[in-house]
Specification:
328 residues; alpha/beta; Isopropylmalate Dehydrogenase; 12-stranded mixed beta sheet; 10 helices; 36% helix; globular
Length: 328
């Protein structure tokens, strides 16, 4: 049986996306089938031959040293480090096309190369804070969860792309409970954990220290955790975030729930800066992404590291296999 390939959206052409996609293909060879959706011109000169596909099913038959491309024309050329506003709509449309292919069954998962939100906003009026929110809109899902994962650590921020001053008001009981439930369900369904252990951070220093450094732990977090424990979830917390991420602490849970963006991302990027993966939980399909941005400053210089893209592809393949197996 021919394996269903992973769809890779090309991301911002002026960034390192084309380079890390080509680098991943060179490193993975025939380990897992994938194809990139994008303009073939943007992948020229990256050390691989190109095979333009007429259908995603052809990806598995492409030679390992060749990059399978499902052509999607862009208005502009690729100039490394210099985003062209003319390409913004193409970047957005490629993501939507990838979602369509995954939802139709033509691809097993979607792996997205980095986008540059300002470039998309300036060039095409992109109205979303990031990939995560746009994918939720495409899928018609009200709430999704962003997980950052590397070897030995999975972290989920409850609030994502908002200013730090906005976090306390945004941290509602419903949002926290939904985030934990979605995370728990994904760990069972897509990561193969029958009884996930979750550790939940507090919002304030020392988890509020009994209310002397903030009361969100008392008024919001603890009541939600108590209710979820009553549902049978294995949850500890609220814990002081500064003691949750050393090696000994990480051994005690399968995923950590953080209250805001940097509380989650700093530990992952400290533990494994090059190999972190961004996973969107709660979608009706698998989506992973490298845990880094477009890196305009090094684009086109041969310095881009494909490690995170490789990890994202491998995780997408693993999650896709589990979800397909569960559907049989």
């Amino acid at each position: 049986m021919t394996p269903v390939p992973i769809a890779v959206s090309c991301g911002e052409p002026a960034g390192v996306g084309p380079e890390i996609i080509a680098g991943a293909r060179a490193a993975l060879g025939g380990e897992l089938p994938f194809f990139v959706i994008g303009d073939p011109r943007h992948f020229a000169g990256l050390g691989l031959g190109l095979a333009e596909l007429s259908d995603p099913s052809e990806a598995a038959r492409v030679a390992p040293g060749t990059l399978p491309v499902l052509a999607h024309g862009f208005a502009g050329a690729r100039v490394a480090g210099q985003p062209d506003p003319a390409n913004a709509q193409g970047v957005i449309d490629v993501i939507a096309r990838g979602v369509e292919l995954v939802r139709s069954g033509a691809a097993s998962a979607l792996c997205t190369a980095p986008i540059h939100k300002k470039a998309l906003k300036d060039g095409a009026g992109f109205a979303y804070p990031g990939h995560t929110e746009y994918l939720a809109a495409l899928a018609g899902v009200e709430r999704v969860v962003m997980m950052l994962a590397c070897e030995g650590l999975r972290v989920v921020p409850v609030t994502i792309h908002i200013g730090l001053a906005e976090v306390p008001a945004a941290l509602t009981p419903d949002l926290l409970a939904d985030t934990i439930r979605i995370t728990h369900a994904a760990l069972v369904r897509d990561f193969g954990l029958s009884a996930p252990r979750l550790a939940v951070a507090g919002l304030n220093p020392h988890a509020g220290e009994g209310g002397t450094m903030g009361r969100e732990e008392i008024t919001v977090i603890a009541p939600v955790l108590e209710a979820l424990r009553a549902e049978g979830l294995d949850i500890t917390g609220p814990q002081s975030a500064d003691t949750m991420f050393h090696a000994g602490a990480r051994a005690g849970y399968d995923a950590a729930i953080a209250m805001y963006h940097d509380q989650a991302l700093i530990p992952v990027k400290t533990v494994d800066f090059a190999g972190g993966v961004n996973v969107t939980l709660g979608l009706p399909f698998i989506r992973t992404s490298p845990d880094h941005g477009t890196a305009f400053d090094i684009a086109g210089q041969g310095r881009a590291d494909a490690t995170s893209m490789i990890a994202a592809l491998r995780m997408a393949a693993s999650m896709g296999e589990r979800r397909l197996g569960g559907a049989r």
